[in-house]
Amino acid sequence: MHISDTTEGIYKYIDKVIQEINPQYIVHTGDIVDNIKLETNADYLYLHQKGLSQFQDVIKKYRGNIYYALGNHDDRESVKNILNGGIIVGKELITIEGKVFSMSHKYEMLQKKADYYLYGHSFDPCSYEKNGEIFLNGLMKINIIVLSTGRIYELGYPVGVNYERKMEKRSVGL
């Protein structure tokens, strides 16, 4: 299961998805508390840590492996201390059940020579396949990869998540 750029407002939804499908692995490609923009305001660290604690409440019941490719709004030390049990990945490629994964918050930072490329951060590029390589944008959809068959399922995020991410233009009334 691949997710990215999650906000506190969708943690209950993520919990339901995890309970329903019981994934063997979870990959989060950054901005775990995306409604708190640490990159632009470091004074929000306490709020970020509070959000991480809420995310920990969701995943503490989960027994599989969790990988984190940290984003521009994540604090490495806070993630390491609060989300214990997860694996923080850097630029290395990760092999899971014989498939090679490149994971990064930003598409531009992905390493080459993988079967699957998982990223978030921006709406561009959308998920696509090219020359047998699969690129999945976790910002747009929750990606469920069935490793035994290669089949990919996409689940939509709840309505309003882009507003919470501050990635949606607001309408102006008169």
UniProtKB/TrEMBL annotation:
GO molecular function: hydrolase activity
Ranges of residues in domain Calcineurin-like phosphoesterase: 1-124
Source species, domain of life: Bacteria
Protein name: Metallophosphoesterase, calcineurin superfamily
Organism: Alkaliphilus oremlandii (strain OhILAs)
